[in-house]
Structures are given as C-alpha cells and as structure tokens.
Amino acid sequence: MVETRIFSRSDIEALIAAGDLIIIANQDVLRLNAWQHRHPGGKLVIHHMVGRDATTELSVFHTVEVLNTMRRYRIGKIEGPWTNLTPPIQDDMFAKTEYKQQQTVETIKLVKSAEQAEKALELGGECNTTSCEKSEKSCPLSKAGRSDAEKKGSESTLNSTKTTSTNAYTTKAIKDELDASIAKYPSLDDKTQREIGLRFQELHQRVRDEGFYTCHATEYAKELARYSLLFGVFIFCLRSGWYTVSACALGLFWHQIMFTAHDAGHLGITHNFVIDTLIGIFIGNFCCGLSIGWWKSSHNVHHLVTNDPVHDPDIQNVPLFATSPVFFTSIRSTYYDGFCFVWDKAADIAVKYQKLTYYPVMAVARFNLYFLSWAHLCSTRSASFGNATWTRPTEIVAIVSYIYLYFYVLLYRNIPTWQARAVFLLVSHLITMPLHVQITLSHWGTSTDDLGASESFAQRQLRTTMDVACPAWLDWVHGGLQFQAIHHLFPRVPRHNLRRLQSLVKDFCAETGIEYLSLGFVDANKGVLSRLQQVADQAKLMAACQAHMAATGESGLH
C-alpha cells in the first residue's frame, strides 16, 4: 500500500505558486489541473476555489457519486483545520491593502504624511462650491497643502492629484460599506467561521436525510399542465388573429417554462447530467432561444462569488447600472477574460439615472440574453467540456431551430403585416420583464463586499442574497425562485421543496447569528431602487469633485 503524503501549508502554497490548481476537500488535497478544461461547470468555478477548503461548495453542487469520482485527483492529505488562502484569480485583481484597494496606496504616495492621507479620505458632505473653496487650505491635496517640490511639477501633479481625489473618495465609500458589513455579521475569525461551516454541514446532512433533494414528478406535472395551457392559448389566439393576446400568452409561456430550465441547469430534476442537460437545451435553446450553456457558465460562477463586482458577471452591467462604488475603479472582470468595465462619461451619465431606467431596461433585457447566448456559443468557453462536447453543437442546432420557428414561421409566415409583427415581437418579449426584475431583486439590494477568504460559504450566500416573501398560493407566479437565499445555500434542491426548507434555514440563521433577509415584493423593489439611487448619488458626488478638480486644481475633499 502506498503511503499517503501529508502536505503542509507551505507545500500547498508552493504548488499553487507554481500554477497548480489545488483545493482541499474533506482533508484531501486535490490537484485539478487536468480536470479544469473538462469540468461541465466551467474552469472558473475551480479557479475560485484554489487554496480553499471547498468541502461545502463541492457537496452542495455535486451528487455523492460525482464526489466519489473526484478522489482520483487526490495527491495527499492535510492534518488539522485549514485556513483558506485567497485564490490567485481573486488576489491578482488589485494590489491588496487592508481594504483591498490599490487606490489607497496611490493616495498615500501623494500626501506628505499618514495623517494627511487619513484626512484625504474624509468627506465634508456634498462637494458644492462653498465646501470646495473651504477645502483649499484644509485639504492635504490642495495647493496650500503641497510642498515646494510638489508645486514645481504643477501639470503632472494636477493630473495625479485629480486621480487621487477620485480614488480617495472611492476608497472611503468602499471602506464604509465594508465596515458596515463586518459590523453586521458574525466575526470573520477562523474559529467563528469554521463553527458556522460545521453547523451548515450538519444542516446539509439533514437536508439529505429528510429527502429535500427528492424531485416530485407531480409538481412538474402541474407545471407541464400550466405550460401547455399557455402555449395552447398562444396558438388559439394566433389562429384567431388576436396577435397581441397571443404575444402575451407566448411571453407568459417563456416566463414560466424557464423556471424548469433553471432546475435542469442545476441538475435538480433527475440529477443526471445528460438527461437534465437535454431538458435544459430543449427548454432554454429550442423553446426560448437562450443558451442553457451560457446560463450555466455564468450562473455557476455567480453562485460561488455572489455579488462580487470583479468576479460575478450577473452584476457587471456598467455603464447602464452600478450596484457598488467598486465599479468607479474601472474593474477588470475575471469572468470576461480581463475585460475592463471602464468608468467613463457614459457611466457617469447612465448611472445618474439608473433608478429611472431600471424598469425600462428590464423590459427589454431578453434581447440582451440573445446576444450573450451567441457570444458564449461562439467562444472557446463552450467547447471545453471533455466528454460533454456534444452539448455545444446540440445547443446551436436547437437555438437555430428557435430562430427559424419564431422569426420565420411565426412572425413572417403567420402574421400578415410588418406593424403587427413588430407589435408581436415587442409584446412577447416585454411580457417576460417580471422574471428579470425578480432575479435582480434578490441581489441588487444586498451586500457587494468581499469579506475575504475566511468567510464561510453559508455566511457569504446569506449576506449577498435575499428572499422575496409571498403567500404560498403565489409560488407559481415566482416559480419558487423567490427563495433565492435558500436556493443559493442548496442549489440542487428542487424549487418545489424550497418553501418547506425555509424553516430549517431560519433556525440555522438564528443559531449562527447570520441575518436571514426576506422582504415582500414591493419592499424588495423599494430596496433595489434605494440602492441604485445610493450608488448614483455616490457617482454624482465623485463626478462633481472631478469637475471641480479640473476647473480649480483642488480635490474638493476635506
């Protein structure tokens, strides 16, 4: 028998530094270099777990059978508890300071002392003309606060200081939000977070034992009847010449059936990869024209790094929307291969009005999903799933079939005039708006802070996700996905079991001291609009300080 190697922390750090993808699971050391390009969930979800104890994440995303097959990648074990490292994919985005913002370092370089640097992060209310004038002598970044040497390089210093004033403001905004999250949730020390992790593992075992992963065919039979009714109404009204009513029925059909596509994407129906993937392709690609592969690729990452501005593609919507001041730094997305979401004049203008544009954009969001679907299918990301490479051509055939059936057979052959066709196209797509609103409600009003590698999986999901409360008889409208916080904790649990699971999650939150956030639909909308306005106000103040700096050479910070 070959003796199992015991790895020290320095051993694992050295392997990761050399480029190995090392994760910890149940004390096993797994080296996933060879698996990353064949992982059906995409390689990024592996990269976000490097250096971490991923026992919990692996168990909630995979069946026991899959977990057993992963043991083939074991190269040894560790002894004792593991303190998480920050994965390289996350560590390289910013040169870290205490609050993980490179801009703070640049600020400190430009002021004369640590005391002045601290003052540079202090805001004296609104950046109006009076406050900016008063700041001339008090602000360490003003002309009065510069040394003789700094004054000599006036033009260069002006440009640097202008950037510094913006960075100082942004850092202060990010710091305040981060401090608020740290104060609100349980301590981030290893002992506390490890205890939360152990309690969650106990909860997960109870979820298994009490059959929450069991999929009830009767629930899907009810949904199939509802889908069939909506589709029948669509066909009947189309044949009757009631095109607008027909478009509404088709839009509602799309709205409802995508809930089942969501289950299939999480392998939550049969828990069989091939069967659930085919169900997802039939519904997502063939019936709705949306790539289930694109959805899975982005959604899996979203579930692991929820609401992280740099890593979560679901909230990377600059210049149209910004839900965190982190976006003011022009972040480079790790999901979109380092694409830079530049904070420019367009972002300044669009975000200023994002509270007003939120609903109109959600109304036409489905058109953007077509683009994202094809962008995914044309990328290498969709062709690297090992034995699952069949999914890409199958998706393309299904989505091309949708285009033919919807745009040619339905719109061109069955609707007589261009005006009627345009109305049908718009109405059928606009009617899906509530689905886009519902999904964003669960995240856009919650924390976007990164509390570091020590934060447990359960705490992060509950901190960055909220449920939308509604009576049980309305569950069919929301599709069961109003329980997003519970779904994020147990992504493979079928939607129909989430309400029943809610009481166990509430008990877990009460025991651990983690807030369980649940708001009614109206209050949830108010929360998102409030957050959009808050970030818009922050952007407006930052832009005002930039304009003042350009005109006077003064930062406007005091």
Automatic annotation (TrEMBL):
Where is the region Disordered?
Answer: 127-163
Q: Enumerate the spans annotated as Cytochrome b5 heme-binding domain.
A: 4-79
One GO biological-process annotation of the entry reads: sphingolipid metabolic process
Please classify the protein's predominant subcellular localization into one broad category. membrane
Segments of skewed composition (Basic and acidic residues): 145-154
- A Gene Ontology molecular-function term? metal ion binding
Membrane topology per the record? Multi-pass membrane protein
Q: Where in the cell is it found?
A: Membrane
Entry GO CC: membrane
Keyword GTP-binding carried by entry:
no
Q: Where are the transmembrane segments?
A: 229-253, 273-295, 356-376, 396-415
**Name of the molecule in the record:** Delta 8-(E)-sphingolipid desaturase
